[in-house]
Amino acid sequence: WLIGGLIPWLFMNATIVQGSKSMLQKISLATRVGFPSKVLPMITLYTNLSRFLLMLLIFTGLLIINQVPLTLYILQLFYYIPFMIFFLYSLTLLLSILTIIFRDMTNIISSMMKILFYMSGITVVINSKENGLIDQILALNPINYFIEGIRHSFLSTNLFYENKGLMLFMITSTL
Known about the structure:
The chain is mainly α. The chain has helices spanning 2-25, 27-33, 39-65, 77-101, 105-119, 133-138, 142-155, 164-174.
């Protein structure tokens, strides 16, 4: 359960932190050559994506070794992973532009990611159906949506469209 939450967290954390710095680090390339700067966060995203997919493969192997049955719910990964990539690309593009404008954004982003680690349901269960208002607010965290979705794909029988309100919120906030 913990590894199933850590794997997407490590991917999202690295992508957000590195992607937000990508334009600032390569600004000379983008200004001299006329290089499309929108590609820079995408390069960071796809670099981290290969590590993420490798970790998911290792996680799948650990589940098989520990005789955890893999069900058809694993096909939900074809929803969560592309949606997570789209979300991370749009977020890193926005944050990398803000980092160019406000140089202190890199420090703010790093601090916020440390706080989000504890607010994203990686080490604790966030259940908005059974618990109170705080869990309902924490469930609106987009990182929690992807972490729980990937966990459910491997370890549960919950489908991605069961919570239609949260799914609609995520799609509209990402767009």
